[in-house]
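Hi F.,

I've been meaning to write this up properly since the lab meeting, where we talked about keeping a consistent format for the predictions we share between groups. The idea is simple: the sequence comes first, exactly as it goes in, then the structure tokens exactly as they come out, then a line or two of notes. No screenshots and no reformatting. I'm using this chain as the first example so we have something concrete to point to.
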Amino acid sequence: MADHDEKFWDRLDDINAGMLGLKSDARFIPMSHYAERDERALWFITAKGTDLVDALQGGAQEGIHLVSDGGEGLYARVSGRLALSDDRAKLDELWNAVASSWFEDGKQDPDVQLVRMDLTDAEVWATGGKVSFLYEIAKSKVTGSKPDMGEHYTLSF
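Output, unedited:
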């Protein structure tokens, strides 16, 4: 299991974004995530006044972050508790050129809002990536066998 955990975090570190939403709502939006392996958390930088932030004003809620990246060979449904955060030190740590593109006044912009997701579990499909996928498809055509598409497992955090 530790191998699965390590593989999940290593691949997630190399992926920039996914689709984030509340478990109670079918609407998901693209969001960049920032993985905090030691704390078993994901961080998101978003704007005040969004539907997600408005929904979290009343307190933490169950959320889902969907990640799909064929190049890294990771497909995952990550679940956890989403909550608003005013941690300025964390914002300083996470701030980057991508985040600054969305906020006119940089990290001092009054619309900047951090959201933290404390992970509870993840359902993961880990493949060998694009090259491995093509190889497995070609091999299946030659041998008549089903392609090996990697591992499917669940992690609890």
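Notes:
The domain at 2-156 is CATH 2.30.110.10 (Pnp Oxidase; Chain A).
The mean pLDDT is 91.

If this format works for you, I'll send the rest the same way.

G.
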